[in-house]
Every structure is written in C-alpha cells, then in structure tokens.
Design goal:
heterodimer, A: 149 residues, mainly alpha, 8 helices, 0% strand, B: 85 residues, 4 helices, elongated
Chain lengths: 149, 85
C-alpha cells in the first residue's frame, strides 16, 4: 500500500466505510439524513472517482460494489439516464486520456452488467442504462489503442 | 415502530418520535460542490478532494449511529412499558 499514491489509502478507506454504511442502512435517505438529490450527487462523485489515475483493482472492485448498491436505489428513468450518461462520459474521457484504461473501464462495465442483471425484469429502466454504456463499448472496439490489446 | 408505540398509547419521548434533522455545514459543503445542474456530458474535475469525501463518509457513519441509538432507545422504552404493564 505504501507504494501507492499518497492519498490512495484515503480513497480506499472511504469506499470501505461506505460499503459498511450502505450495508447497515435500511433506508439510506432517512438513516444518513440525506435530502432529495444528495444520493445522485454521491453517485456522481463515485463515478468521477473512476478517473483517479492510481485506481487499483481492489479500489475499483469496492467502488463498483458501492456504485451498484447506490444505483439500485433509483427507480426514475430520468435519474438513471443522468447517472449512466455521466458514467459513459467518464469512460470516454478515460479512453481519450494517457491513463491506464483497463481497470477503470472494466469497473464501469462491471457496474453496468450488475445493474442490467438487477433491472432485467424492467425494460423501462434498462433503456436509459444501456444507451449511454453502449457508447463506451463502441468506442472500446473502435479505439486503435484498445483494439491492439 | 412509531406505529406500534401509538397503538399501545405509549408516551414516547418527543425527541425519539420526531428526530430533528440537523444540517451539518461540512456535509452541505461537500454536497454543494457536486454540480448536478450541469450537463452529464460536461467536463468534470477528476474527483473531489478525497479528504472531503472521507469526511462526508464519517458524517454519514455518525448519522447512522445516531439513528441506531434512537431506534434502540425507542425499543427499550417500549420493552420497559410492556414490562410495567
């Protein structure tokens, strides 16, 4: 761990804390004293964390789990569309950067897969989730750098 | 639980029955820094300062503990009243 980036441990501890908090909270809004829109802000923050240049497999796995738990609390097509457009945008920014791409892209697609599995019975919720994520899949296949790996 | 307390006509401490929602300025500062109004496709900074995120996590943990304490206190008051009855 000491060889990682100086604030890596802060990010890892934060995500571990959130895993336990979310597991112990039956009603997240009430238990954590969150207002309307706060949960969406937290999802945005976690999604953008995928751009952390020193994202490890361990941190990505915990982050994906937390993102999945939080995303499953949404049942509005509009909010789900916002979340996955942001996820797609973050993924495309990672593809266009000089950063490592494998870990964050794998994490984003694992998050997408978990949500698809959770919403598979609900076609209405799958639509806003799938469109934006397919943009990353398309870019991954057409990207010359990714195509070589 | 409140429903059962009302059913049993228990005198539940008002503080327990109606928990006050306290606003924490630090938590609000963290949440306000995340912009929801902008387009999902707009450029975003790489993430917030990790220290502000962990601080928010600790505040959430504190709220979780407070919630559990209130639930436990309410449950104990119900048990005590039932014992007296």
């Amino acid at each position: 761990m000491t060889s990682k980036h100086e604030n890596y441990w802060v990010r890892l501890s934060t995500q571990r804390l959130f895993t336990h908090i979310l597991a112990a909270s039956k009603d997240v809004h009430k238990t954590l004293n969150l207002k309307e829109g706060d949960l969406l802000k937290l999802v945005y923050d976690f999604t953008v964390s995928m751009r952390y240049p020193h994202l490890s497999e361990e941190l990505a796995t915990i982050l994906t789990g937390n993102l999945t738990t939080l995303t499953m609390l949404f049942d509005s097509e509009e909010e789900l569309a916002k979340i996955f457009k942001k996820g797609s945008y973050v993924g495309r920014k990672i593809l266009g950067s000089n950063l490592q791409t494998e870990v964050p892209l794998k994490a984003l697609l694992t998050w997408y897969k978990s949500i698809v599995m959770a919403f598979k019975e609900n076609e209405g919720l799958l639509k806003p989730v799938t469109g934006p994520m397919l943009e990353i899949v398309y870019r991954t296949y057409t990207d010359t750098a990714m195509g070589q790996t | 639980m409140k429903k059962y307390a009302a059913k049993l006509k228990l005198r539940v401490n008002a503080d327990m029955a109606e928990p006050k929602e306290e606003e924490n300025p630090e938590a609000q500062r963290f949440l306000n820094a995340i912009d929801l109004a902008s387009s999902e496709e707009e450029d975003v900074p790489e993430a917030q300062d990790p220290w502000s995120t962990i601080y928010f996590a600790i505040l959430c943990l504190e709220n979780l503990f407070k919630h559990c304490e209130k639930e436990q206190a309410l449950l104990l008051s119900l048990v005590r009243t039932l014992d007296m009855g």
